[in-house]
Every structure is written in structure tokens, then in C-alpha cells.
From TrEMBL:
Highest taxon, organism lineage: Bacteria
InterPro entries, sorted: DUF2911 (IPR021314)
Organism name: Fodinibius salsisoli
Signal peptide location: 1-26
UniProt keyword annotation of Signal present: yes
Keyword hit for Signal: yes
Listed name of the protein: DUF2911 domain-containing protein
Keywords associated with the record: Signal
Length: 181
């Protein structure tokens, strides 16, 4: 029994040290009912850095997504639905060349036709409680046309021992950003 308890304690300590506990807290649910925009998490190791993105997956549902009333161009978007989309880094990184310390951040964006701003913010909240005073860094990236994707998703591509690309996909748009460790 002591052996199991020690392994459990070590496992919990590892979770606390990597900051994953903050991601779990960011996606706590108010009830056990199914959601229209279900929660999802994607994780990728780059080198020894564990990167996790936790978010809710809204659907297009025959709506105009980007540039319409759902996600207007030029305005801060919570980048998903429900709780803050969070991104956790177990070690320091650079995002599009800008330094970012290990930790958990909410991920906001300002969509545009030709350029998107990706915002890493320290405030983790429900919905659109964005506070620009909590911004840590902002990076500019170019969106790309993509095949239609009904539900929003994040994934990683081009993984090496020192870098990778996180990609936001929804509707007919994909938005990549480079992470270096």
C-alpha cells in the first residue's frame, strides 16, 4: 500500500510542477451536462517541454464565422467557447521569436483578413473577461486558407527536438504559430 501511495504522491507532484493543474482548473465544468461546444485538450512534447492546449470546440453550424457577427475582424476573441482557452508550457519558450516563461496562459486572438494577433494573457476566466493589462506577449501571424472544418480544433505540426508549430483550425481558416524551446 505504501508503494502505491508513494507513486501517487510522485505523480501528483509531477502534475503540480508542470503547471498542468492550472489547465485542469481552467476547464472546470459547472455541471455534468453535455455541452454544445465540447471541451478538448491536445498535448505535445517538444524536446523535454510539455505543451498542452485546453479549449472548447464551437461548430460552424451554417454560420459566417470570421469577419461576421460571430467572430468579427479586428476585435478580441476568446478563441473558442465557454472557459478561457489555455496553453501550458512546462519550460520557457519563444513564440514567433518572443520569450514566454513557463506557465499557463489564456489564449486570445484578434482575427483579421490578412493578419491575426495571438495574445498570451495571465487571466484565466469564463468567457470574454479579457483584461489587456494581463497580456504577457502578443505575436502577429498570417492566417491561411484551409479545407472546411466544422468544429474548431488545435493541433501540432513540424515537430523537431527544438521547435514545433501549433495550429488553430476552424471553418476555412488555419492559423499557425511557431514555438521554440
Amino acid at each position: 500500500m505504501k508503494k502505491v501511495s508513494m507513486l501517487t504522491a510522485i505523480g501528483l507532484l509531477a502534475v503540480l510542477l508542470t503547471g498542468v493543474n492550472n489547465t485542469v482548473l481552467a476547464q472546470e465544468r459547472g455541471n455534468e451536462e453535455a455541452r454544445v461546444s465540447p471541451n478538448a485538450t491536445v498535448s505535445q512534447t517538444i524536446g523535454t517541454n510539455i505543451i498542452s492546449i485546453s479549449y472548447s470546440r464551437p461548430s460552424v453550424n451554417d454560420r459566417e464565422v470570421f469577419g461576421g457577427s460571430l467572430v468579427p475582424f479586428g476585435e478580441v476573441w476568446r478563441t473558442g467557447a465557454n472557459e478561457s482557452t489555455t496553453i501550458t508550457f512546462s519550460e520557457d519558450v519563444t513564440i514567433e521569436g518572443q520569450a514566454l516563461a513557463a506557465g499557463t496562459y489564456s489564449l486570445y486572438t484578434i482575427p483579421g483578413e490578412d493578419q491575426w494577433t495571438i495574445i498570451f494573457n495571465e487571466k484565466i476566466s469564463w468567457g470574454t473577461q479579457y483584461d489587456e493589462n494581463q497580456d504577457v506577449i502578443q505575436v502577429e501571424v498570417e492566417p491561411m486558407e484551409a479545407e472546411m472544418m466544422e468544429q474548431m480544433m488545435f493541433y501540432f505540426t513540424d515537430i523537431t527536438q527544438t521547435s514545433g508549430t501549433a495550429v488553430l483550425r476552424w471553418d476555412d481558416v488555419k492559423v499557425p504559430f511557431t514555438i521554440k524551446v
